[in-house]
DNA sequence: TCTTATACCGGTATTAGTATCACGGACATG
DNA sequence: CATGTCCGTGATACTAATACCGGTATAAGA
Protein backbone atom coordinates (compact mmCIF):
# COMPACT_ATOMS: atom_id res chain seq x y z
CA UNK A 1 0.00 0.00 0.00
CA UNK A 2 1.43 3.27 -1.08
CA UNK A 3 -1.15 5.76 0.00
CA UNK A 4 -2.52 5.23 3.44
CA UNK A 5 -6.30 4.75 3.23
CA UNK A 6 -8.26 7.11 5.38
CA UNK A 7 -8.59 5.82 8.90
CA UNK A 8 -11.92 5.84 10.72
CA UNK A 9 -10.50 8.57 12.91
CA UNK A 10 -9.80 10.70 9.88
CA UNK A 11 -13.30 10.11 8.57
CA UNK A 12 -14.75 11.10 11.92
CA UNK A 13 -12.66 14.20 11.87
CA UNK A 14 -13.98 14.91 8.39
CA UNK A 15 -17.53 14.63 9.69
CA UNK A 16 -16.81 17.08 12.47
CA UNK A 17 -15.18 19.37 10.01
CA UNK A 18 -18.17 19.23 7.70
CA UNK A 19 -20.57 19.86 10.56
CA UNK A 20 -18.57 22.91 11.52
CA UNK A 21 -18.73 24.27 8.01
CA UNK A 22 -22.44 23.61 7.78
CA UNK A 23 -23.02 25.44 11.01
CA UNK A 24 -20.91 28.32 9.82
CA UNK A 25 -22.89 28.42 6.60
CA UNK A 26 -26.05 29.14 8.54
CA UNK A 27 -29.06 29.79 6.36
CA UNK A 28 -27.11 30.58 3.24
CA UNK A 29 -27.49 28.17 0.37
CA UNK A 30 -24.80 25.74 -0.71
CA UNK A 31 -24.50 27.21 -4.17
CA UNK A 32 -24.15 30.67 -2.69
CA UNK A 33 -21.24 29.76 -0.47
CA UNK A 34 -19.71 27.42 -3.03
CA UNK A 35 -19.78 30.14 -5.66
CA UNK A 36 -18.29 32.63 -3.25
CA UNK A 37 -15.50 30.21 -2.46
CA UNK A 38 -14.95 29.26 -6.06
CA UNK A 39 -15.71 25.57 -5.65
CA UNK A 40 -18.55 23.48 -6.98
CA UNK A 41 -21.63 22.92 -4.88
CA UNK A 42 -21.09 19.19 -5.03
CA UNK A 43 -17.67 19.59 -3.51
CA UNK A 44 -19.04 21.72 -0.72
CA UNK A 45 -21.77 19.21 -0.12
CA UNK A 46 -19.28 16.34 0.02
CA UNK A 47 -17.14 18.23 2.48
CA UNK A 48 -20.10 19.14 4.63
CA UNK A 49 -21.46 15.61 4.65
CA UNK A 50 -18.05 14.20 5.45
CA UNK A 51 -17.69 12.35 2.17
CA UNK A 52 -14.56 14.32 1.43
CA UNK A 53 -12.88 14.07 4.83
CA UNK A 54 -9.55 15.61 3.85
CA UNK A 55 -10.19 18.47 1.47
CA UNK A 56 -7.44 20.56 -0.06
CA UNK A 57 -5.97 23.33 2.03
CA UNK A 58 -6.85 26.13 -0.34
CA UNK A 59 -10.35 24.77 -0.81
CA UNK A 60 -10.83 25.03 2.93
CA UNK A 61 -9.17 28.42 2.96
CA UNK A 62 -11.54 29.70 0.29
CA UNK A 63 -14.53 28.31 2.14
CA UNK A 64 -13.33 29.79 5.39
CA UNK A 65 -12.94 33.15 3.70
CA UNK A 66 -16.40 32.88 2.19
CA UNK A 67 -17.83 31.91 5.56
CA UNK A 68 -15.69 34.42 7.42
CA UNK A 69 -14.28 31.92 9.88
CA UNK A 70 -10.75 31.39 11.13
CA UNK A 71 -8.68 28.57 9.73
CA UNK A 72 -6.94 28.06 13.02
CA UNK A 73 -10.18 27.77 14.92
CA UNK A 74 -11.51 25.46 12.24
CA UNK A 75 -8.49 23.21 12.42
CA UNK A 76 -8.54 23.15 16.17
CA UNK A 77 -12.26 22.58 16.55
CA UNK A 78 -12.41 19.46 14.44
CA UNK A 79 -9.71 17.60 16.33
CA UNK A 80 -11.49 14.97 18.39
CA UNK A 81 -8.76 14.82 21.00
CA UNK A 82 -9.09 18.44 21.90
CA UNK A 83 -12.65 18.21 23.13
CA UNK A 84 -12.10 16.04 26.16
CA UNK A 85 -13.63 18.67 28.38
CA UNK A 86 -16.15 20.61 26.34
CA UNK A 87 -18.82 18.31 25.00
CA UNK A 88 -21.45 20.91 24.26
CA UNK A 89 -22.39 22.00 20.81
CA UNK A 90 -20.73 25.32 21.41
CA UNK A 91 -17.31 23.81 21.75
CA UNK A 92 -16.16 25.65 18.66
CA UNK B 1 -13.47 18.22 -17.81
CA UNK B 2 -14.30 16.64 -14.54
CA UNK B 3 -11.49 17.74 -12.37
CA UNK B 4 -10.06 21.13 -13.09
CA UNK B 5 -6.32 20.81 -13.78
CA UNK B 6 -4.21 23.05 -11.66
CA UNK B 7 -3.80 26.46 -13.22
CA UNK B 8 -0.39 28.12 -13.45
CA UNK B 9 -1.61 30.55 -10.84
CA UNK B 10 -2.35 27.70 -8.47
CA UNK B 11 1.07 26.22 -9.09
CA UNK B 12 2.69 29.55 -8.41
CA UNK B 13 0.70 29.80 -5.24
CA UNK B 14 1.95 26.34 -4.32
CA UNK B 15 5.52 27.44 -4.81
CA UNK B 16 5.02 30.43 -2.59
CA UNK B 17 3.36 28.25 -0.06
CA UNK B 18 6.27 25.82 -0.06
CA UNK B 19 8.76 28.62 0.23
CA UNK B 20 6.91 29.92 3.24
CA UNK B 21 6.99 26.53 4.88
CA UNK B 22 10.68 26.09 4.14
CA UNK B 23 11.41 29.47 5.65
CA UNK B 24 9.33 28.63 8.69
CA UNK B 25 11.24 25.36 9.04
CA UNK B 26 14.45 27.30 9.47
CA UNK B 27 17.40 25.12 10.33
CA UNK B 28 15.36 22.14 11.39
CA UNK B 29 15.60 19.09 9.18
CA UNK B 30 12.83 17.82 6.97
CA UNK B 31 12.51 14.53 8.77
CA UNK B 32 12.32 16.33 12.07
CA UNK B 33 9.43 18.54 11.06
CA UNK B 34 7.76 15.81 9.02
CA UNK B 35 7.85 13.46 11.96
CA UNK B 36 6.52 16.13 14.25
CA UNK B 37 3.66 16.77 11.87
CA UNK B 38 2.99 13.08 11.28
CA UNK B 39 3.62 13.14 7.54
CA UNK B 40 6.33 11.54 5.47
CA UNK B 41 9.44 13.54 4.71
CA UNK B 42 8.85 13.09 1.01
CA UNK B 43 5.46 14.70 1.31
CA UNK B 44 6.93 17.65 3.13
CA UNK B 45 9.60 17.95 0.47
CA UNK B 46 7.03 17.93 -2.30
CA UNK B 47 5.02 20.60 -0.59
CA UNK B 48 8.09 22.71 0.06
CA UNK B 49 9.31 22.42 -3.51
CA UNK B 50 5.87 23.20 -4.87
CA UNK B 51 5.36 19.83 -6.48
CA UNK B 52 2.27 19.35 -4.34
CA UNK B 53 0.73 22.78 -4.82
CA UNK B 54 -2.57 22.02 -3.12
CA UNK B 55 -1.89 19.80 -0.11
CA UNK B 56 -4.61 18.48 2.14
CA UNK B 57 -5.95 20.80 4.76
CA UNK B 58 -5.05 18.65 7.73
CA UNK B 59 -1.59 18.01 6.35
CA UNK B 60 -1.04 21.74 6.27
CA UNK B 61 -2.62 22.10 9.69
CA UNK B 62 -0.27 19.50 11.14
CA UNK B 63 2.74 21.15 9.53
CA UNK B 64 1.64 24.55 10.74
CA UNK B 65 1.30 23.18 14.24
CA UNK B 66 4.72 21.57 14.03
CA UNK B 67 6.22 24.80 12.74
CA UNK B 68 4.19 26.91 15.14
CA UNK B 69 2.76 29.19 12.48
CA UNK B 70 -0.75 30.46 11.93
CA UNK B 71 -2.91 28.87 9.26
CA UNK B 72 -4.59 32.15 8.51
CA UNK B 73 -1.30 33.93 8.03
CA UNK B 74 -0.08 31.05 5.92
CA UNK B 75 -3.14 31.12 3.70
CA UNK B 76 -2.98 34.85 3.31
CA UNK B 77 0.75 35.08 2.74
CA UNK B 78 0.87 32.65 -0.15
CA UNK B 79 -1.58 34.65 -2.26
CA UNK B 80 0.60 36.40 -4.86
CA UNK B 81 -1.37 39.62 -4.78
CA UNK B 82 -4.72 39.76 -6.58
CA UNK B 83 -6.04 41.58 -3.57
CA UNK B 84 -4.90 45.05 -4.45
CA UNK B 85 -8.26 46.59 -5.18
CA UNK B 86 -11.53 44.75 -5.37
CA UNK B 87 -10.91 41.88 -3.08
CA UNK B 88 -13.09 40.27 -0.45
CA UNK B 89 -14.78 37.63 -2.50
CA UNK B 90 -11.73 35.61 -3.41
CA UNK B 91 -10.90 34.87 -6.97
CA UNK B 92 -13.92 33.06 -8.25
C1' DT C 1 -51.76 20.22 -8.82
C1' DC C 2 -47.81 21.67 -11.13
C1' DT C 3 -43.56 24.10 -11.12
C1' DT C 4 -39.41 25.68 -9.08
C1' DA C 5 -35.64 25.67 -5.99
C1' DT C 6 -32.75 23.53 -2.70
C1' DA C 7 -30.44 19.65 -0.92
C1' DC C 8 -29.19 14.73 -1.08
C1' DC C 9 -27.40 10.64 -3.38
C1' DG C 10 -25.38 7.45 -6.67
C1' DG C 11 -22.13 6.74 -10.33
C1' DT C 12 -18.29 8.24 -13.44
C1' DA C 13 -14.04 10.55 -15.10
C1' DT C 14 -9.75 12.67 -14.41
C1' DT C 15 -6.26 14.99 -11.89
C1' DA C 16 -3.55 15.34 -7.79
C1' DG C 17 -1.80 14.21 -3.05
C1' DT C 18 0.63 10.83 -0.31
C1' DA C 19 3.58 6.87 0.77
C1' DT C 20 7.03 3.32 -0.53
C1' DC C 21 11.13 2.19 -3.16
C1' DA C 22 15.55 3.10 -4.93
C1' DC C 23 19.66 6.39 -5.76
C1' DG C 24 23.28 9.85 -4.86
C1' DG C 25 25.73 13.11 -1.83
C1' DA C 26 27.54 14.59 2.79
C1' DC C 27 29.37 13.40 7.09
C1' DA C 28 31.02 10.78 10.69
C1' DT C 29 33.20 6.56 12.35
C1' DG C 30 35.65 2.22 11.99
C1' DC D 1 39.73 3.71 2.53
C1' DA D 2 35.40 1.37 3.54
C1' DT D 3 31.02 1.55 5.66
C1' DG D 4 26.97 3.11 7.91
C1' DT D 5 23.80 6.85 8.64
C1' DC D 6 21.23 10.91 7.59
C1' DC D 7 19.36 13.99 4.31
C1' DG D 8 17.41 15.28 0.04
C1' DT D 9 15.66 13.65 -4.48
C1' DG D 10 13.42 11.06 -8.50
C1' DA D 11 10.38 7.42 -9.95
C1' DT D 12 6.43 4.59 -9.12
C1' DA D 13 1.89 2.91 -7.04
C1' DC D 14 -2.38 3.72 -5.24
C1' DT D 15 -6.06 6.25 -2.94
C1' DA D 16 -8.67 10.43 -2.56
C1' DA D 17 -10.42 15.04 -3.98
C1' DT D 18 -12.82 17.52 -7.42
C1' DA D 19 -16.26 18.13 -11.03
C1' DC D 20 -20.12 16.66 -13.98
C1' DC D 21 -24.50 14.07 -14.81
C1' DG D 22 -28.67 11.95 -13.71
C1' DG D 23 -32.28 10.97 -10.48
C1' DT D 24 -34.99 11.67 -5.98
C1' DA D 25 -37.30 14.10 -2.03
C1' DT D 26 -39.11 18.00 0.24
C1' DA D 27 -40.91 22.67 0.71
C1' DA D 28 -42.59 27.07 -1.19
C1' DG D 29 -45.24 29.43 -4.60
C1' DA D 30 -48.32 30.13 -8.78
UniProtKB/TrEMBL annotation, chains A, B:
<dbReference type="Pfam" id="PF13560">
    <property type="entry name" value="HTH_31"/>
</dbReference>
<dbReference type="InterPro" id="IPR010982">
    <property type="entry name" value="Lambda_DNA-bd_dom_sf"/>
</dbReference>
<dbReference type="GO" id="GO:0003677">
    <property type="term" value="F:DNA binding"/>
</dbReference>
<protein>
    <submittedName>
        <fullName>Helix-turn-helix domain-containing protein</fullName>
    </submittedName>
</protein>
<feature type="domain" description="HTH cro/C1-type">
    <location>
        <begin position="21"/>
        <end position="74"/>
    </location>
</feature>
<dbReference type="InterPro" id="IPR001387">
    <property type="entry name" value="Cro/C1-type_HTH"/>
</dbReference>
